[in-house]
Amino acid sequence: MAHSAIAKNFRDGIITLTDATPVTPLVATAIYEDGDFKLDGLTQGLKEHANYEDRGVRLSTRKTKSAFPTFSFSAIMTDLADNTDKHIVNAALKTGAFSAGVSTTAAKGDVWTM
User: Is a pLDDT exceeding 90 seen at residue 90?
Assistant: First the structure.
């Protein structure tokens, strides 16, 4: 695929949160217009990097423990939450329509993930 000549930005998009329910996953869509999406912690092999030095001279850079990427964004809230509709607040708190949601890492712990 060729590179586009048009600059891209994060305005006027959507962010979708999805659980791991088989066949018909639960989905919450956030209206995203602020353009402030932030993603940190993406490193090669998802590992932290450590520099090793001797008298101020870098000898090597090594991959160390696992790194866990994080992200943040702002969304325009049009409704806070309710028990039937799929709102982003319900998705984050695992309440309402998401109360029976299936975590994307269910086999790896007891934390709700999407």
Answer: no
How far apart are alpha carbons 29 and 83 in whole angstroms? 16
| Residue among 22, 41, 32 nearest 104 (CA) | 22
Q: Angle at CA 75, nearest 5°, toward 74 and 81?
A: 125
Cα–Cα distance between 52 and 60 in angstroms, integer? 5
3-state secondary structure (DSSP) of residue 7: coil
Q: What is the pLDDT of residue 87?
A: 81
* 81, pLDDT greater than 80: no
pTM: 0.63
Q: Is 22 helix (H, G, I), strand (E, B) or coil?
A: coil
Give the pLDDT score at 85.
79
Rounded to 5°, the CA angle 7-77-81 comes to: 140
